[in-house]
Specification:
Structural class: mainly alpha
Bound molecules: zinc ion
Shape: flat
Helix content: 40-55%
Number of strands: 0
Length: 284
């Protein structure tokens, strides 16, 4: 089922959640679980306990995980952002710029730049980093700016990776998630439209509205038989052998095609299958 839906297996998702939760406890100094996770294992712990399980997981992934992690600091009623924003003024006019069109845009730009330089010298600016370069920049006293900035930052990034710097919980969480989230192969199924996917999914799993399933599992129809009366109506019968649809089958597939090909083949094979089902008028 997980292969068909392309969702990471349950076991993997559970391990990922557990290790993230354990990390969160370790960062939260005041949490009761914090001390429990630090204690040595005692014989009283059950094999399946959260502590033991997550400890094993962390050991297993220790190569890939950062060693040090900063504690999470909980601050109550602390909204520095709002306090700072309270003093923000919006400047909408620039001296010497007239509203008439007699100044060229270059003149306007120059006037604006000189006003900015005079009234808001760049040393007083607050810099906002949106590319996570803040960590690198601040550890270097914010001294990287200017034309060589991207190169310098890239160089810093490379250097930083050599060292063991503590990471914050959010970064740790991203690292853990990426460890567990190995991209799965995108098969042809995922290139289909949503409704084509539904059809193929139902045919593959047998959870469909064909009589065999409706009779044996859902118990909502009196017989599992196909209207042709020759066999039970299931995926294989419908796609491969039902005589009621032989003409359509020959029209869509010009030669004998295996069930495997029809359900798991390349995109065009799957699309032939969905077209066939659609043209039979049978609701799967
Ligand atoms: Zn039939």
């Amino acid at each position: 089922m997980e292969d068909i839906t392309n969702i990471p297996p349950l076991g993997k998702r559970r391990e990922c959640k557990a290790i993230v939760q354990a990390t969160k406890y370790q960062c939260s100094q005041d949490h009761p679980m914090n001390t429990r996770l630090k204690q040595l294992s005692s014989g009283r712990l059950k094999r399946s306990s959260f502590t033991l399980e997550t400890r094993a997981l962390q050991r297993k992934h220790q190569e890939a995980l950062p060693k040090y992690i900063e504690p999470i600091v909980f601050t109550m009623n602390n909204t520095p952002c709002e306090e700072k924003l309270g003093n923000v003024t919006i400047q909408t006019s620039v001296p010497l710029i007239t509203t008439k069109d007699e100044q060229t845009s270059n003149v306007k730009k120059t006037l604006t730049m000189s006003m900015l330089e005079e009234q808001y010298p760049s040393e007083t600016w607050v810099r906002v980093y949106t590319d996570e370069s803040a960590i690198n920049a601040t550890t270097n006293g914010g001294a990287v700016w200017g034309n060589e900035q991207p190169d310098r930052l890239a160089k810093y990034g490379a250097e930083q990776q050599q060292e063991e710097n503590p990471v914050c919980f959010t970064e740790m969480k991203t690292i853990i998630k990426s460890l567990f989230n190995t991209p799965q192969q995108q098969d042809s199924y995922h290139q289909l439209t949503r409704s084509e996917q539904t059809t193929i999914f139902r045919l593959r799993t047998g959870h469909n509205r064909l009589n065999q399933h409706l009779h044996k599992v859902m118990k909502v129809v009196p017989s599992p038989m196909c209207p042709c009366g020759e066999a039970e109506q299931d995926t294989a019968h419908l796609l491969q052998s039902c005589n009621l649809h032989q003409a359509l089958r020959d029209k869509i597939w010009h030669s004998v095609t295996s069930l495997e090909e029809k359900l798991y083949g390349p995109v065009d094979s799957l699309q032939k299958t969905t077209r066939f089902v659609e043209e039979t008028g049978i609701q799967v």
